[in-house]
Amino acid sequence: MKKHFRVIESCPETRARIGELITPHGTIITPAFMPAASQGTVKTLTPQEVRDIDISIILSNAYHLYLRPGIETIQKLGGLHQYMAWDRPILTDSGGYQVFSLAALRRIDDEGVLFRSHIDGSEHFLTPELIIESQEKLGADIIMPLDECVAYTDDKTVVRRAMERTHLWAERCLKHHKSNQSLYGIIQGGVFSELRRQSVAAITSFGFSGYALGGLSVGETKELTWEIVSETAALLPKSQPRYLMGMGSPEDIVTGVALGIDLFDSALPTRVARNGALFTRTGRKNIRNAAYNTKDKATDAECDCYTCRTFSAAYLHHLFKCEELLAYRLATIHNLRFIVRLLQEIRDNIQEGTFSAFQKGFLAHYQPTDQEIRLNQKQKWLKRMLNDQK
Amino acid sequence: MKKHFRVIESCPETRARIGELITPHGTIITPAFMPAASQGTVKTLTPQEVRDIDISIILSNAYHLYLRPGIETIQKLGGLHQYMAWDRPILTDSGGYQVFSLAALRRIDDEGVLFRSHIDGSEHFLTPELIIESQEKLGADIIMPLDECVAYTDDKTVVRRAMERTHLWAERCLKHHKSNQSLYGIIQGGVFSELRRQSVAAITSFGFSGYALGGLSVGETKELTWEIVSETAALLPKSQPRYLMGMGSPEDIVTGVALGIDLFDSALPTRVARNGALFTRTGRKNIRNAAYNTKDKATDAECDCYTCRTFSAAYLHHLFKCEELLAYRLATIHNLRFIVRLLQEIRDNIQEGTFSAFQKGFLAHYQPTDQEIRLNQKQKWLKRMLNDQK
Known about the structure:
Helix content of chain A: 40-55%
CATH architecture of the largest domain in chain A: Alpha-Beta Barrel
Oligomer: homodimer
């Protein structure tokens, strides 16, 4: 089997690096961002648009697809790539996070997890083996084991128990894994350095194609998130890809890259787009603000996306005010293109040896959304998602 | 000024004809269909997609744009074409129909109509002159006068009064009209042959660039609609375009063309698409039906649209079940392309002298939605629209 990953270039001042991730559906240059295509579609976009934005890999979700339309349905229709007409790489998450955040949990033990569907209340029992088989049938390029995710807590016993079960399941996933898909291990351990160290030791000892940092951005402060990312990433093997699960705002990406992260995924860029928040180099702008009603220029004058090339901020504002469906798409195109261009700039700067200065400059100009607002939004969003999907 | 319209070819057996409609933004070959872009967007689509489908002219609405974002806003931003990034012809409806169907009417007299906005309850007074000025500022290629629309009724006095006011307003619109936009006259008169004859006599005596049949499909049976269309179209000058307002289902288009109609508009193809109803040559198919869950082929195997070329019916079914926004777009693309291809086939058959046989064949295979269902849907839709937009 071909080597899955190699580092091409490293930053002399930070842990940032450029890598090549080789998959059956093509090579991805890292650092890279994977937009969420949880239900087999990057919300509002056609696969052609996702290509035009120059997204190199997307993230889908075995939990969502297992419940609807069903794994066997997709398998019969030729696998996930053919089903959704996307011919570039796909990573499928196992859906561990969704089982613990969306579903009504019935029982969890070492064997697996019994839950009720958030869609129709039907009961399902997921095991590490079933999750691997499901992802093999879907046919993604990179797949993830079942893990146990807990929300942020200072109860070390709870976190340790979930971590130990994650290790047990990781080993079973690896044993059951027969395809040529790349299987990554997931590091758990909450905000406890000691547990994170234990988790890295256990998971890397099994030997996976790459390593993911799970259980972060689940309610803890940003400071704590980055402390744990920094410590944990430093312990992971340099020669393998590192994936920070569920984080992908512009500021997260710049900071994560500096700490040695190669892969990011997040529903944030597409979700906030649908709320009218557009990324610019100075921060998110809310296109619903009355000030945009007559703004003749593009929302982000520096951007080369279809939206910014074609429409004024005034028109986009109008579409949002009228709740026209086109609004959500145009904003999504912009935010994803912003992320793709940001990553290109990050890689160029790593290449040129100027990444550290770039990072400082970016973070000095980019006004991130206030932490309190951010946590509130996350709570509201989780609540709404639960209600929406009941 | 260049001649606005000329007939190129006529069917020897029916009143069908091919024509050329010359406008500042290009020539339209008729019969043609105008999709609704009431708020300055063909719902769910970018202008590029509308072009790719090969739509030659769209219909926007002065009433909607007057209320939001405001006529002056669009004028300042370079007019409607530039605002919405559409460089082919546009027809703007005056919004008479919307004032009478959407707004809360306060008072109507010969001077104009006082109403409350369906969006924010603000009070507005529309006059024929204001409507013409608004449409001149928007800059559409073809514009419409203010008319008084009444729902289907057998009270001839009510219909006559509205018709007489429509005539009065038509004359004022024509007097106030100074741009090089083509202004069409609107024929009213409900389902009364005598009134329709009077309306044709009055409106054609003023001399417009084209003639529209208004006040149809407002609650009367289809049989009655076609009786009135047939009688009225026959009285209109052959050398000018005839526009059937607010009708544009596949069966309506085929029937209307046979009666000498050149232009159609309707929100139906795009609206039913968003409900999951896809046109095929045997009638509308509901993609939400469970039978499509595993259908590997395109919804309409004969279609060349992006949706049918790219995705299985199963995938489209999945998107609708998940309420993914992409679903509404993919269905809209298909339905509009279906209409465009139908019109191309109609024109080819007129050209070849085989239109009459084509019409019979089409109507024999196409199963229209049952009249009772249709009227119920229309009621439900109007009610929902009112609620949505309150």
